[in-house]
Amino acid sequence: MKKLVFLAVLLLNLFASIEAFSCHCSGNYEFNTQEDLAGYDFVALVQIDSIYASAIPKTHENDLFYQADLTVLESFKGDTQGSILIHGGNKTVTERWSSCDMGIDKSETWLIFARRGENGQLKTHFCTFSSMYANSSGEKTTHGRSVSDLEKLRGLFQAAHP
């Protein structure tokens, strides 16, 4: 009986520790109006031209981010200086990774939702509405929400700017 209780406690601790290291997002998980996007400074369909380790200094020792140069294909809100910070790791350019990595890579097309940081640099992360629209071969994603979100954005912003 003691072994069974020990095994149960061990399994509970294992699941609790996995939960502690997983990525969690809170807040609204979809948008329906322009007001739902008020917290974003930049919303656009973009082509990822390159990804690289960022030269922007880290605020904290454990900060994990990289940078991407991009071309705006269709803009809905704000403008960019041509690059964006992406919070999380990327096996191609960072030494570490996390459960919050977005997996953005060169030549992909993404629907990006970003905010400006303290230094004015646009940044996005796992808990935004950002999602891959097409892979590097140009194939649109058939899972996820990017195709429907793009159509929703076109409707919201066309109605506002006929």
- What's the main sheet like? 5 strands, mixed, barrel
Shape-level CATH architecture: Beta Barrel
Beta-strand fraction estimate: 25-35%
The average pLDDT score comes to 80
Class of secondary structure makeup: alpha+beta
Rounded to an integer, what's the Rg over CA atoms? 19 Å
The succession of helices and strands, N to C, reads: HEEEEEEH
| Unreliably modeled segments | 8-21
Fold-level CATH name: OB fold (Dihydrolipoamide Acetyltransferase, E2P)
Range of helix content: 10-25%
Instruction: Give, in spatial order, the strands making up the sheet with the most strands.
Output: 1-2-3-5-4
Number of helices: 2
Characterization of this structure:
With 162 residues, this protein is of the alpha+beta class. The chain has one domain: OB fold (Dihydrolipoamide Acetyltransferase, E2P) (Beta Barrel), CATH 2.40.50.120. It is 21% helix and 27% strand. It is built from two helices and six strands. It has a five-stranded mixed β-barrel. The longest helix is centred in the first third of the chain and has 19 residues, at 2-20. The chain is globular and about 45 Å long.
Short description:
With 162 residues, the protein is α+β, with helices and mostly antiparallel strands. It is built from two helices and six strands, in the order αββββββα. The chain starts with a helix and ends with a helix.
